[in-house]
Amino acid sequence: MKLRIGVIGTGAIGKEHINRITNKLAGGEIVAVTDVNQEAAQQVVADYSLNAKVYPDDDSLIAAENVDAVLVTSWGPAHESSVLKAIKANKYVFCEKPLATTAEGCMRIVNEEIKAGKRLVQVGFMRRYDSGYVQLKEALDNHVIGEPLMIHCAHRNPAVGENYTTDMAVVDTLVHEIDVLHWLVNDDYESVQVIYPKKSKNALPHLKDPQIVVVETKGGIVINAEIYVNCKYGYDIQCEIVGEDGIIKLPEPASISVRKDGKFSTDILMDWQRRFVDAYDVEIQDFIDSIQQKGEVSGPTAWDGYIAAVTTDACVKAQESGQKEPVALQEKPEFYQSFTTVQK
Ligand code: NAI
Ligand code: ISE
């Protein structure tokens, strides 16, 4: 029997996940949708020829008897409430980042999941499913370059809308590096500092862009992460890890090279949808399969969502203070100690 899934929020990524579950992946079907914009929800049902009911809100969708699992793909501030309701109803829930907009909100989810006594929550940190990052992880775990010492990385978007603010550079964008890097090196963060280089003429007046975030881990690794969201030329994700015995680098997305008109060139992707399409597919397939096969989810945990929130909070503080700010995590609950999160 297929996993019956309800989707809360039928915007950009909600539609993408609906499409992949309906047309690409195995074992799941969309049976329910809701959006504060009810017309948008109805439109999605029509566009994807879904055999799904449109619910007026998340309460009624989560309560529906034929909904086994929920995807939360609404705006960030609405995530916490929907996730808490899903856990209380004993339903599996995949939540796009952020798990909640505050560390306190993430802790409320962590505590509710612990009370439920089994893993119900997976956070949408899809980079852990990207084949390039998985290769980096395997190389690090197999000590191919010895101990990692430094990480240089960049997260570049071609452009952002006028609603994108300076804090979103860390909360919305860098959050993917924040999640994937501590997972890669199996270390916790100690401190963060934000440096503003010369501002790009392509950034709107209210936005500081680019930014450099310097992160130190408890084990002494220093990460310098560039965020540049008006780079114009493409969607470009870079990650180079310098170790005691060598260097490993995230592979570039595969693309043909062209020899033409006296040039040798390779395309650069322009958006995150295509850059991580395979990772999203594997991530959602893992959500479906883990529930079907083990009765529990197995991807990034609510605790990972909490780590991300504490770290982005510290980054926002560092944006304002210009100082090095501590990343103060609470002690990891026993419940999350036994879960190894995704290594496909
Ligand atoms: P969007 O604005 O295109 O869609 C959000 C939808 O949620 C809208 O249709 C809106 O009407 C609806 N909505 C808002 N509040 C709601 C509520 N309380 N109940 C039901 N529906 C509600 O936004 P987008 O780009 O789809 O982003 C959604 C979430 O996914 C965000 O949290 C974003 O950070 C995350 N995201 C994650 C990405 C990733 O790489 N993992 C990439 C893009 C977005
Ligand atoms: C967006 O929300 C994402 O999650 C993308 O992966 C990221 O590259 C972009 O900067 C964010 O706005």
Summarize the structure.
This protein is of the alpha/beta class.
Describe this structure in words.
By secondary structure, this protein is an alpha/beta fold. The chain has eleven helices and 15 strands. It has helices at residues 12-23, 38-47, 58-63, 76-88, 103-116, 131-141, 168-185, 272-275, 277-294, 302-321, 334-337, and strands at 3-8, 28-34, 53-54, 69-72, 92-95, 121-123, 148-156, 189-195, 211-217, 222-228, 236-243, 247-249, 257-260, 263-266, 325-326. Strands 12-11-7-10-9-8-15 form a seven-stranded mixed β-sheet, with helices on one face. It has a six-stranded parallel β-sheet with strand order 3-2-1-4-5-6, with helices on both faces. The chain has a two-stranded antiparallel sheet with strand order 13-14. Helix 4 (76-88) packs parallel to helix 5 and helix 7 (168-185) packs across helix 10 (302-321). The two termini are 24 Å apart. (2R,3S,4s,5R,6S)-2,3,4,5,6-pentahydroxycyclohexanone is lined by residues 157, 172-173, 176, 272.
> For the report, how would you describe the main beta sheet?
7 strands, mixed
Taken from the alpha-carbon principal axes, the silhouette is globular
Give the tally of β-strands: 15
Give the count of helical stretches. 11
Low-pLDDT ranges: none
The helicity comes to: 25-40%
Element-by-element helix/strand order: EHEHEHEHEHEHEHEEEEEEEHHHEH
Say what oligomer this is. single chain
List cofactors, ions and other ligands.
1,4-dihydronicotinamide adenine dinucleotide, (2R,3S,4s,5R,6S)-2,3,4,5,6-pentahydroxycyclohexanone
Helix/strand/pairing category: alpha/beta
Beta-strand portion reads 15-25%
